[in-house]
Structure formats: C-alpha cells, structure tokens
Design goal:
Elements (H helix, E strand, L loop, with lengths): L2 H17 L8 H11 L4 E3 L6 E2 H17 L7 E5 L4 H12 L3 E4 L6 H10 L4 E5 L1 E2 L2 E2 H8 L8 E5 L12 H6 L3 H12 L6 E6 L9 E5 H14 L7 E4 L6 H12 L4 E4 L5 H11 L3 E4 L1 H14 L8 E4 L8 H9 L3 E3 L1 E3 L6 E4 L6 H6 L3 E2 L16 E5 L13 E6 L11 H7 L6 E9 L5 E6 L4 E3 L2 E3 L1 H5 L8 E11 L3 E10 L8 H11 L8 E5 L14 H15 L1
Parallel strand pairs: 3-4, 3-5, 5-8, 11-12, 11-13, 13-14, 14-15, 26-27
Antiparallel strand pairs: 1-2, 6-7, 9-10, 16-17, 17-18, 19-20, 20-21, 21-22, 23-24, 25-26
Helix pairs in contact: 2-4, 3-4, 3-8, 5-6, 9-10, 11-12, 12-13
Length: 568
C-alpha cells in the first residue's frame, strides 16, 4: 500500500495507544459502562428493526440483570442464551455479566438431543431463548427435554413469532421482576465485579467432533478484542456490520466487544441475507464489513448485481475458511476498500490470534493467514508483548520444528483457554506437558510471525501408512472451471487403510470436468499415495456446515463413506 494511504492507519494506532496506555482488568459490562460514560447518546446497536444508544443498552441490560437476580440467579450461575443476532442478545449478554453470572451462548441451529447435551453439560440453571427460529420450535424442544434437564430451573422467552404460541415468561416479564432488593444486590455485584471471572462457556464449532465448552474470562475476551482493534487500527466510532452469530467468538469478540473500545456501533444481522446486508450498510453507514468466505462471495455477487454505495465503507475482514486467491482483488474492486484483512483463530484462543495488517499488502492475503496480532497494553511482556504466541511441532515425535517447517500449531498466552468446562480428560489432552494448546491445525510459522494454515490433523488421513493433508489436494482445484467447491476427506479402505475421496460441487457452467480429468490432474501434481481413489458429485446443500459456514469434515467423511459403500 502507498505511504499516503498508510498514514491514517499509523495515526489511528497511535491514538489507540494514547487512549489505552495501561491495561485495566475489567468485565465486559464495565467496558460498556466506561464507553457509556464517554458517549451516552452514541448508537451502539443499529438494525432495521431496533436501534439503541449506549445509555439505552446500559439501562435495559441493568433491568434484565436485576430481573435475573430477582428470579434467583446467584453469582457464578450459568445462564444459557439461545438467540440469533437480535439487539436483545446484546442486552441479555451484558445483563448476565452485570449479574456476575456466566453466559453459555448456544448455537441456535441445535435442537433435540444436541441442544439438550449443551444445556445439561454446561449445568445451565436458566435459559433465555427465542420461541422459534427458521423452522425450529425451541419451546416445544425444551418441553420435550425437560425430564432430562432437572437442573434447568426457568426459561425466559424472546418472542420472534416463529415458535409455539404457549404462555411463557418473556424478557419484558423478566425485567419486570426487578425489585428494590434485587436492584441493590445488582449494585453490590457490579461494584465487586471480577474481570478474571469466567464470562463465557463457548462451545466449539464441531468441525471434527462433538462440541466442548471452552471457558473464557472477561479479561481474555477484552484482551483479544483490543488486540484486533489495535491491529486493524479502528477509528473512533467505527461501525461494524456482520451476520456471524454472536454465540461464536467471531461475531461476539471481533465485532461486538471490539467496537465498544472505540465507542462504535454494531450492525448485526439475525440471518445472512446479502441484499439486506448491502441495504443496511448503505442505510447505517457501515465502515467495516466482517464475513466468512461463503458470505463474502455472495455479497460480491449481490453488489455487482444491484450496485453499492461505497462512501462510508473502508475496511473488509474476510476470514474463517479457505479463500480462493482471486477473492482479495474482487473485494477491493467491488467495495472500493483499501483495508482488507484475514486472520486465524479459534474458540479456544478467544478470537483471532493472527491478522494481516494493512501495511503488509496483497502478498500477506495471498500467502498467509496474517501474523501475530499487535496487542499494545493488552500484551503479556513474558511472551514478547503479545496476547498469544505459536510454535510448530512435529505431530508424531513432538519435536519443535524450525521456522518454515510444517507441523501442528501450538499456542499459549493470556487469551488461550485454561480448559473445557467439566471435561478434565479433554482438558488434559488438549495441552502439552509444558502448557501449550494443541490447536489440531497444521501450518507453518515464519521468523517474522507469519502464519500459514495447510490443514487439520484430524482432517488428515493415512493412505498406506503415509500422511495425507486434504488441503494440498483441494488447492489444485481452486478456481477450477466448472467447479464451485472441492473438498477431500479420507474414508476407510480394506487394502490401504484409508483412501482419499474427492467431493465436488459443480457450478453448472462451463461443463464440469470428468472424473478422469480430475484424477489425471491429481496424478500429474501429486505423489501416487495422495491421489484420491473416489470422486463424488454433490450439491452445495449436501455439504454439512458449522453455523459459521465451515465444512464439517468429519460429517462429510461419514457421508462420503456411506455413498461409496452404496455405489459398490
């Protein structure tokens, strides 16, 4: 990027470091209180249905917090939150923090046994839920699950109008429970608030297995958010637009909490709709759009179709999946932005730990997942002033590898979870003897801190005893004519132990390649043991996804194995 364009970025970072010269351990509610004191009438939430100022959010969240206390919520209780990105999610999230309770944000795509598992495993005493959403009836589900959830004492309902029309206690009813006694107890808890207390138990996306609840503290959340604010050089009042669910760290930490550091506003969408996002971006003057790759491509298509006023927008953050090389130029051309970012992180590290910087240029976007984030006052001097650091380790021998060598990425630092709730065995297994977190991701790390992902250990498979990383095969077909998606999984094979299965989604135009064309290209570019044995043609809707749009490889492998058996 030209020096003239870098100047504002440098200036914004300098202002942030002046504003936050030393780190204070706060709760997320205390952060919102500090921002409210500075700019009470600024908008914090902007949506097509309801917008709220910092003062209004503070007042409404306090009413709900007092209502929770009146309902019997004790400090440290776990309160599940089952809600899409409505303004009420933010109100309840802050209310739970104010009441000195722990929030268990629940994936609202869960239902039946999967929902019951999270509510039971998390020991949630209360649940704040939508009545229904996108065809799911949570009230009916909770009724059916009640016998298996003896510890769940009460539920409070946000009406979307999509669920059962049964009588229930609403959020308004909950706020109405507040009494002078509960108000006084709330004031006492707010005064005694502990930033090192567990703020959230956030369940992993489950790309490779059953979810586990990563425990995060208020301080971890704030350090992670501030490091993104500094790395991406937020200006005062930044408006961030996103549709990633706030039960996930991407929407919660990178968007909601981050914007509060600069008295900004969020423009959250309960569900992703490309046209609606463009409409709201123009209406509310979004400065920063944050997306996963699937959303990014649909936004680009919609913007090209309808046109888009780029006046307010200057930043685009596209992360959380594999990106085709051409997407960065498409973002720049379609949205007219100079500041484009990608990064890498996971639930267990609270948010992103690496992020590309504007000054790094296009090469960083094309060839890496960014570099270790700046942290300023939030950093830990013991690890070089950052909030997380990495090393690369041989996944078989455990030996630490030199810079540039591929192996398992392991992390440590003040934003790395201390473990999974009520899962001592899994907690023990996820850490090394010397305290590093097994990420399960395979990649490289340069001496300058550039991180590049190449796959996941649990996505890898052994063909005839040789390790195969699916991403190496998938990369051959990035931007391949006639294909919109290519995924490789390992499936059981009697002779080889496991073999590769190439799963493709056709674009419809031009004509899709034949199986032989695909396999011939693999044979040309890969060692023989890496060439897939099977090719499956799937529809986009057949690919199992997490709520954040990432393919669930373990479920895809199960589907592929079944389809291959049925074809035999």
């Amino acid at each position: 990027m030209k020096t003239a364009r870098l100047k504002p970025v440098v200036q914004r970072r300098a202002r942030l470091e002046q504003r936050y010269p030393a780190w204070r351990t706060l709760t997320i509610a205390q952060l919102q209180d500090r921002a409210t004191l500075e700019h009470p009438e600024r908008p914090l939430i902007l949506t097509g249905g309801r917008s709220m100022t910092y003062r209004e959010v503070q007042e409404e969240s306090r009413k709900i917090a007092s209502g929770l206390i009146a309902a019997g919520a004790k400090a440290g209780d776990h309160i599940a939150l089952l809600m899409a990105n409505f303004p009420e999610f933010i109100l309840v999230k802050l209310a739970i923090a104010r009441a000195a309770c722990t929030c268990v944000p629940v994936n609202y795509l869960l239902h039946g046994e999967a929902l019951g598992y999270v509510l039971a495993q998390s020991d949630s005493r209360f649940v704040v839920t939508m009545d229904g959403w996108n065809g799911l009836d949570y009230l009916a589900d909770l009724d059916a699950l009640a016998p298996s959830l003896p510890g769940l004492e009460a539920r409070f309902v946000f009406r979307t109008g999509q669920g059962s029309a049964q009588a229930c206690e609403t959020l308004a009813d909950l706020a109405g429970r507040a009494t002078p006694a509960s108000d006084a107890e709330l004031a006492r808890r707010e005064a005694a608030a502990d930033g090192n207390a567990i703020s959230d138990i956030i369940y992993t996306s489950g790309t490779t297995g059953r979810p586990k609840g990563a425990m995060l503290t208020h301080d971890m959340v704030l350090r992670a958010a501030y490091s993104s604010v500094l790395t991406r050089a937020f200006e005062d009042g930044r408006r961030i637009q996103y549709a990633m669910p706030m039960y996930h760290v991407f929407g919660y930490v990178e968007c909601l909490i981050a914007c509060i550091f600069v008295n900004g506003a969020v423009i959250p969408h309960p569900a992703f709709d490309a046209t609606e996002m463009l409409d709201w971006a123009e209406r509310f003057g979004a400065n920063d759009i944050v997306c996963v790759p699937l959303m990014t491509h649909r936004l680009i298509d919609a913007a090209r179709s309808r046109g888009f006023d780029t006046t307010a927008l200057h930043t685009f953050f596209n992360s959380g999946g594999v990106n085709v090389p051409t997407v960065w130029a498409e973002i720049r051309e379609t949205f007219g932005v100079d500041e484009i970012h990608t990064g890498y992180g996971m639930t267990e590290t609270t948010a992103s730990t690496t992020c590309s910087r504007v000054e790094d240029g296009e090469d960083a976007l094309l060839h890496s997942n960014g570099r270790i984030k700046l942290a300023g006052a939030a950093g830990d001097p013991a690890i070089g002033g950052v909030v997380a650091e990495y090393r690369v380790v041989d996944p078989v021998s455990g030996a630490v590898l030199p810079h540039g060598a591929a192996g398992e990425l392991q992390a440590r630092g003040p934003i790395v979870t201390r473990g999974y709730y009520n899962k001592p065995d899994e907690t023990r297994d996820v850490f090394t003897a010397d305290g590093w977190l097994h990420t399960g991701d395979v990649g490289t790390l340069s001496a300058e801190g550039w991180l590049s992902l190449t796959g996941r250990i649990k996505e890898s498979y052994r063909c005839g005893g040789e390790m195969v990383m699916p991403r190496e095969i998938e990369a051959i077909f990035d931007n391949y004519p006639g294909l919109t998606q290519t995924l490789v999984v390992g499936i059981p094979d009697r002779k080889m132990g496991e073999v590769g299965c190439l799963c493709i989604v056709e674009s419809g135009s031009p004509a899709p390649p034949s199986d032989e064309e695909l396999l011939s290209l693999c044979r040309e570019k890969l060692a023989r043991f890496k060439v897939p044995k099977h090719v499956l043609r799937l529809r986009a809707g057949d690919i199992p996804l997490t709520a954040t749009g990432r393919p669930q490889k373990f479920r895809l492998a199960e589907l592929a194995a079944r389809m291959v058996r049925e074809k035999a």
